[in-house]
Amino acid sequence: MKKLKRSIGAALLFANAAVATTLPAPNWHTFELDDGSMVELRLMGNSELHWYQNRDGNIIIQGDDGEWYFGQYQQQEQRGEIISTGVKLGAGVPAPEQSNVVSHPVILPAQRAFEPESASFNTRSLYERSQFTPEFVPTRRNQPLLVVQVSFTDAAMENNFTQRIFGQNQQSVRDYFLKNSNDLYTVVPARETSGVENDGVIDIVLPRNHPNCHSKTDPTCGRRLHDTIAAAYQALDNQFDLAPYDTDGNGSIKPSELSVMFVFAGFDRSFGDGNTPYIWPHRWAHNAVTLDGKTITDYCLFADKQGDHQSTMGVIAHELGHLMLGLPDLYAYEGDGSVGHWGLMGGGSWGRKAGDLYAGETPVNMLTWSKEFSGFIEPRVIDGEQAVTINTENDGGVIYLDDYLKRQGPRLYVENRRKQGYDRSILGEGLLMTSVNIDNPFNSAGPMQVQILQADGQDDLASGRGSDRGDVFPGSRNISTLSDDTDLSLRLVTSGRATGASISNIQSTLQSGSFLFNKPVAQGKSAWITTLGRDNRYFETANNAIGFGVDVGPQEKRLMGFHFYAGQTAVANSVDYVLYRYPYRTTWRGVSVDVAARNELGRGQLPMDGGRVMLAQPHTLPAGSSLLVLELNNGQPEFTYSFMDSYLTNSGRKPQFEGSVSDYLTSGLRGTGGKQYPFAALLEDAVLNPALNAQNDQFQIVEDTAAAMNLVSNDIAVPERYRIELGEKPRLGSWSNNRYVSNLNATGRDRFTYRIVGTQGEVSNYAEVTVNILPINDAPTFDLELNQPTLEMGSKIRLSAVRVNDVDSSRVTINWRQLSGPATHWNSVDTYSINIELRENIAADQNIIFRAIISDNEGAKTEKDITIVAKSQAINLGGGDVSIEFGQRITLDLIKGLASDNVSRIEILQYPIKGKAYIQDMKLIYEAPNSSDLPITESVKFKVVDQSGNEWESKYTISARNKSTLAKNTESDSDGGSMEFISLFAFLFLMMVRQRGRSNNMRLNLLQSVSFDHFYKRKL
């Protein structure tokens, strides 16, 4: 532990890659202007380009003089910037039109790395995934973590992060990852001798000032951070031994072997309050440091404080997700797209549950996509036809939407999100679907590759607006079906290609979510894939002939098409391609090309920015490997240095080659080094066996029954091992595993087709199966509905039989019965709806059970029961119209007729636009804006839920205006809206003096002037 040296140029990262940072906190901060007025601002953007924004959507910046100005976005040749309009922010000052981000949107730059000092260094992906294999094996593993708390000459640490990181039996980073991994992943303290020995935390004081910077746009920031971290390692050297953490013995420390996080004294710039000195939390690589004979480069960095409090754990868990697990950011670096508050790697790191004081105290759970990426879970593959149940805790499913690409192609991750555990801060409850569209870049710009498929179809998250109840299914719009043809189409995930999948009857409860799924199982389709992750993209300008060593395995396959991505050299022209096949012959530098054996497979135009191309006719690729070469005209092939989707495949890096169309025919193609060109060859099994022949079949069954159907009993030359593949599906039932099941109430003639596929590639013709379904008398079907959830004394509840149906009878009758509960009265017993009321008040809540019996004219009948909750007390909510002065606060009642211990929760459903509203001690606090040229009227809608789950909604309509136009509201406790006692006393005294005659006029006039002037000023 005595030798420490700093290696310049050995940092294992690549130039111009995106740095991993956190989003700005979703907090509003109050600043005082030079005219004495107050303004609420929120930090927006990212670490490279950020600004403040007011509630009207105007850009606000602080000038070098410390004053606040309206800003505007200005696009430069290389990047945009925020500049001042010269208009100073003040009460009543109108905003310049160019300051509004809606009419003049800001284009965010990519977040850039603090590069090492030498241009000569190795390359690797930011996202290291070597610790996990694509074949999921639930294995418990410990993740060592060292926390270094750094004080400076001008800034001292005020907080200790031991419990926030390693705390047990409480919310902490350790607890968060343990729960999200289903107890597979434990963050453990690194062994050290500082302070409390082996608690994983080292405190050091550096004899230098805080770096006080955050961005690569500051040309000195990178060097300051690198120098500070190198000095920190030198200071801790005698208290820590790095050598034992080189578990694979290669001389360098990977984050999976030991992760190191630094906490700098001072402030978190992403919090947005403007305090200094500050840093912006991030994960990256510093200049390589050698300690105890081992080299380390990776780190993440946090601040001691956010505003006036200790930094919350959400931003820490987010950045450690980058460092320890290799997780990418799930928000667009150059746009507004995000998974919102639904995942840790989006805005969910700033989660705040009821009772939390600060944003980020309770980060939401990781998305199922992130859990799979991290090796925490293997989502269940949902295919064929089945009823699906997804448990709320540590469960998830995935639907492959492309028969060729399967798990590396477009797909949907499905999970049930409820307000439990770390999800107590989510804004809606239901089935959440995360889509992966490979035709989108990963997260350089929106739309992103990984994004939430929002049930309400509003696409709020793509434009930077917040998460809400409309994002989940069924959600606020009660969306329970999803297919290629619904308004919210599955084609959105596949760039318009049909999936054949349908999801219906979507439901969500506290314990689980469920739905019915159907997608034909396609046999014989596969793909040879390099990578489709498409993160940190570059475009090749020197090479326009790209080759791939495609291995189809031991049997020949048919090439049906391919996936490939390229930009345009000249924007006005299309990208043209020619695809050739050559024999695959490797050389020491790449592959050679046999022009005499060249076979053209197709030519045409690539889609804009690339994507899927289906060939005009299939081409057979022989068993083993072939060299496929794409020649491009006016195209710049897309490539990346990373392997984002390596966790999805066992095959490792695929052979790829590059060269120029002008010379590769003579000099061959060379290897691509660390480059990966996203490409997929779309393959199908070969060939039809004419000897194998499927024969037509006929069967007869009774309605609502099932029957065994051996389809191959009369077929010819059936191989010993085979499978049945359906072509046209049955309409009136379903067939699987030699069994046909008729749909409920279906009768008549059904038909479907099938073929036989042998394990050696034999394929038969399609044969037709006819099923005659004989009818029987069916009992009526119906549902029961209540027009309201509970019944109270003095009110009525309507109970209705709805969706009454009898498929084979023209007339039905209904009869109602009360089975249990307090005495009630209801109207006619033979109508589909009855009005029920309590005969007398009840002392406590009770259940009333009613039964409906519906019979058809042939004697079949159906009975259904329903439970009505009779309430002993009705809740009386606050609400109505209220007036208030600008700059004042008012406290409003929310509940009047319900004991506070019977209230489960109170939620604000609709926030005001201009003012602020929040709940405190079961009352609604509304704070009016400081000023406005015109009066405003806005609503605050709220919901009260009692311990039984009953919900009530109400709203206040609040008018705010200047004092001179506001009538006194005697019901308000507004801070500035009542007469002071001393002013009232002076007024009464005036009246007494007046009665004593005119001799005291001079003193009276003076007193009147003083008293009323005091009263007038206090009111205004």
User: Helix amount, in percent?
Assistant: under 10%
- Estimate the global geometry from the Cα principal axes: globular
Major sheet: 10 strands, mixed
Q: Which stretches of 5+ consecutive residues score pLDDT under 50?
A: 1-18, 111-135, 967-984, 997-1020
Pfam family, one: Peptidase_M6
Protein name: Peptidase
InterPro entries: Pept_M6_InhA-rel (IPR012045), Peptidase_M6-like_domain (IPR008757)
Signal peptide: 1-20
Secondary-structure blueprint of this entry?
Elements: E1 4-7, E2 20-21, E3 29-32, E4 38-45, E5 50-53, E6 59-62, E7 68-75, E8 80-88, E9 141-151, H1 162-166, H2 173-180, E10 185-189, E11 201-205, H3 221-236, E12 259-268, E13 278-279, E14 282-291, E15 294-306, E16 309-310, H4 313-325, H5 368-374, E17 380-381, E18 384-391, E19 397-400, E20 411-417, E21 430-436, E22 450-452, E23 482-483, E24 502-508, E25 512-519, E26 525-529, E27 538-539, E28 545-551, E29 557-564, E30 566-568, E31 576-583, E32 585-586, E33 590-592, E34 599-605, E35 611-621, E36 625-633, E37 635-639, E38 656-659, H6 664-667, E39 669-671, E40 679-685, E41 697-702, E42 706-708, E43 722-726, E44 733-736, E45 739-742, E46 748-758, E47 767-774, E48 781-786, E49 790-792, E50 796-805, E51 812-820, E52 824-826, E53 833-838, E54 846-856, E55 861-871, E56 880-885, E57 889-893, E58 903-910, E59 916-920, E60 923-927, E61 936-946, E62 951-961, H7 981-994, H8 1001-1019
Parallel strand pairs: 9-10, 9-11, 9-12, 12-13, 12-15, 17-19, 41-47, 49-55, 56-62
Antiparallel strand pairs: 1-14, 2-14, 3-4, 4-5, 5-6, 6-7, 7-8, 14-15, 15-16, 18-25, 19-20, 20-21, 21-22, 23-24, 24-25, 26-40, 27-37, 28-36, 28-38, 29-35, 29-40, 30-37, 31-34, 31-36, 32-33, 33-39, 38-39, 42-45, 43-46, 44-45, 46-47, 48-50, 50-53, 51-54, 52-53, 54-55, 57-60, 58-61, 59-60, 61-62
